[in-house]
Amino acid sequence: MMMSEASAAPTSLSPMDDIHAFWAQRWSGPVLGWHKDQVNPHLLKYTHLLLKSEEDKRLNDDSTRIFVPLCGKSADLAYLASHPKISDVVGIDIVRDAAEGFASEHPELFIEEVQLPNECGTETNSPKHTCGHATDNCTFRGKNFTFLIRNVFDFLYMTTEERAKHMSDGTYTFFDAIYDRASIVAIKPSQRKDYVTLMGEVLHPGGTIFLVTIDRRCTKTDEAKRDGPPFSIDEREIRQLYESQSWVESVTLLDEVNDLTTDEERERWEKKGVLELFEIVFLIRKKN
After folding, report:
1. How far apart are CA 282 and CA 280, in angstroms?
2. Domain residues of the chain, as ranges?
3. How far apart are CA 170 and CA 51, in angstroms?
């Protein structure tokens, strides 16, 4: 199975409560239901769509900078950071365990925690989001790789100058591509519109978003349909969210895959009231 429930560990918190506490508790459980040890097969199949095209002249070379929101300790990060045509990967997650786990599992990337002067000393553009001196707001860096530990909205709401402080070379603030395999399905559904708008603001003109969602297509109850994370989001809603944005050139459906292919998976999800579960893969392209 490519994307499973957030965790099998019991919890009294919901994602509508304190988001850091919710995910910290998930990470402390015995099973990380969302984590996969292998590189995502959709990413392997479509990596070329994340790279800059022959016609793209934003830089003199064909290197690509990629943003991976709510990345966890995914093997996809190491795959992207090691790709010869990808110059820099920036991952972000709210829990420190994700960065430490990834660094431990990928010594070939030489990842270390770094101290950035005045890294989070200013407020963001939103009164609801600030990047203060919280204990868990820190940065790890390695070969072609930066891992930020903070709320993704804090980062997205920063000014371009503030974002530059978090980048590996401090000179760029926009990304050529965004790889979203587990981010939009993890945030609160009420935040989706803001999330989509902000992603467009950190993406270069002509850039792409490679997006993987899940669709709880058939459920026993409406509650099972609404449950999460991961939250269900079907093709219709994806098109409504992105095609309504002035910066979007196109939304292309690449793949639709049945995610319940074994008896074990079907039984586990049926206990949660889900009878049919699909992964849907999209490519969103920003206007030049």
Report:
1. 7
2. 41-51+60-179, 184-288
3. 22
Element (H, E) at 64: strand 64-69
User: Identity (one letter) of the amino acid at 149?
Assistant: I
Phi and psi based region of residue 83 (left: phi greater than 0; alpha: psi -120 to 50; beta: remaining): beta
The DSSP annotation for 140-177 comes to: EEETTEEEEES-HHHHHTS-HHHHHTTSSSSS---EEE
pLDDT of residue 10: 35
**CA Rg, the chain, in Å?**
18
Using alpha carbons, select from 50, 121, 57, 44 the residue that is nearest to residue 89. 50
Q: Which residue stretches of the chain have pLDDT < 50?
A: 1-16, 119, 121-135
CB 5 within 8 A of CB 230: yes
Bin 214: left if φ > 0, else alpha if -120 < ψ < 50, else beta: beta
CATH number of 184-288: 3.40.50.150
Cis peptide before 127 (omega within 30 of 0): no
Residue listed under structure tokens 């015995």: 30
CATH fold, domain 41-51+60-179, is: Rossmann fold (3.40.50)
Q: Fold identical between 41-51+60-179 and 184-288?
A: yes
Calculate the CA 253 to chain-centre distance. 18
Report d(CA 160, CA 36) in Å as an integer.
33
Place of tokens 């890294």: 119
In the β-sheet with 248-258, what is the strand arrangement from edge to edge?
112-114, 138-142, 145-149, 86-93, 64-69, 175-180, 203-219, 274-286, 248-258
Q: Are 241 and 257 in contact, with CB atoms under 8 Å apart?
A: no
φ/ψ of residue 140, rounded to 5? -115, 140
pLDDT at 173: 76
Assess whether the previous peptide bond of 30 is cis (omega < 30° from 0): no
Residue 260's pLDDT is what? Answer: 94
